[in-house]
Amino acid sequence: MRLNEITFTDAKPVEGYGPGFFRIGGEVFQGPVITGPSGSTAWAGYDDADALLDYAGHVDVLFVGTGAEIAHMPAPLRTRLEDAGLGVDVMASPTACRTYNVLLSEGRRIALALLPV
Q1: What does the angle CA 6 – CA 29 – CA 63 come to, to the nearest 5 degrees?
Q2: In sequence order, what are the residues at sequence separation of 6 or more whose Cβ sits closer than 8 angstroms to the Cβ of residue 90?
Q3: Residue 89 in 3-state DSSP?
């Protein structure tokens, strides 16, 4: 069997998560977090649209993890993001983490916003 090392460019993969935290690129974040080509940082949740809009023009898709279960994100926020040219894909946070890591390993232009599980 041949194993290949995955290169994650400038963005860091999600390495783990649990009740109230995420581990991204070796750093632990308590509560909501956003990550993408410019690094990872704490996020204030749906009220912090500007942090998500900063990715407009830099990524093609923003994955939004809604916690342990899939839920709708506020419609005005989704509309605002899509109007700025961001593709938005909403899913449960565990699924969002896995999807982000796979597409990141393929070199895709993506970002991730997560609410804790």
Answers
A1: 60
A2: 63, 64, 66, 70, 71, 72, 73, 78
A3: strand
* 27 contacts: CB under 8 Å, gap ≥ 6: 12, 40
Nearest CA-CA partner of 74 in 46, 32, 112:
46
The pLDDT value given to residue 113? 98
CA distances from 62 to 4, 19, 28 (A): 27, 23, 21
Look up the pTM and report it.
Answer: 0.90
C-alpha dist (Å) from residue 29 to 22, 65, 72, 90: 5, 15, 23, 21
Picking from 52, 42, 57, 109, the residue whose alpha carbon sits closest to that of residue 77 is 52
- Cβ proximity of 66 and 83 under 8 Å: no
